[in-house]
Write a structure and sequence with these properties.
alpha/beta, two-stranded antiparallel sheet, globular
């Protein structure tokens, strides 16, 4: 079963129910998790497996340093703010989408193979 948690409060609500049988996947562009660092440390003490998926462009990636499993993607930045008069350059997360989709389909394949559905 997959649950998408979009807010810190949602994560706080499920912490008591997470165990070694679960896998928590945290996706972060920067890896800066100052708002949930205590939760991540607590879950590590509970031996809840945690996978980080973060951008490779950040030097200080606190999340990737704290958890045992890491995947990386390269977010492509499009420098147009000087020519288009926007305040921030847009960032493409297409590589993140491909990585998540590949991870999901491989997981489904692994589960199906264990159940004998696919060979």
């Amino acid at each position: 079963m997959i649950h998408n948690l979009a807010a810190k409060r949602e994560l706080e609500m499920i912490v008591p129910y997470l165990s070694e049988e679960d896998l928590l996947i945290i996706i972060s562009l920067s890896g800066d998790i100052s708002d949930i660092i205590e939760i991540v440390r607590f879950l590590s003490l509970k031996r809840v497996p945690i996978l980080s998926i973060t951008n490779t462009r950040f030097d200080r990636n606190e999340l990737a340093n704290l958890v045992p499993y890491n995947l990386y993607f390269l977010a492509a930045e499009y420098p147009i703010h000087k020519t288009m008069h926007v305040s921030e350059d847009p960032t493409s997360l297409a590589a993140l989408s491909v990585l998540c989709e590949a991870f999901f389909f491989d997981y489904v394949k692994q589960i199906s193979t264990k159940d004998g559905d696919m060979k």
